[in-house]
C-alpha cells in the first residue's frame, strides 16, 4: 500500500468525522429552533383567538333611547381598557379625566 495515499485517506476521514459532528450539532440547533417556532405559532393562534373573542364581546352594542339610535357603552371598570371604547369616546376621554387626589369642584374628596 502507498503510505501517502493511506495518510491522505486517514486525514480525510478525520476531517469528515469532524464535519459530521459539527453538522449534527447544527442540525440539533435547527430542529430545536423549529420546535420553538411551532410552539410560538400555536401560542400566537390561541392569543389571537382570545383577543378576537374579547374584542367581539367588548364591542359596543347599539340600542334605542327615545326612538333614537344610540351606542351602548359598557360601564367603566378597572379591567376595561380605554381602547375598548369607540374612537370618538377615546378622543374625548382625556378631557373627562380628573386626578384621583382632587375632588370635583363643589364636592368634598371621597375615598
TrEMBL record:
Region (Disordered) location: 80-111
Keyword field: Coiled coil
Tree of life domain: Bacteria
Ranges in coiled-coil conformation: 9-57
Protein name stated in the entry: Uncharacterized protein
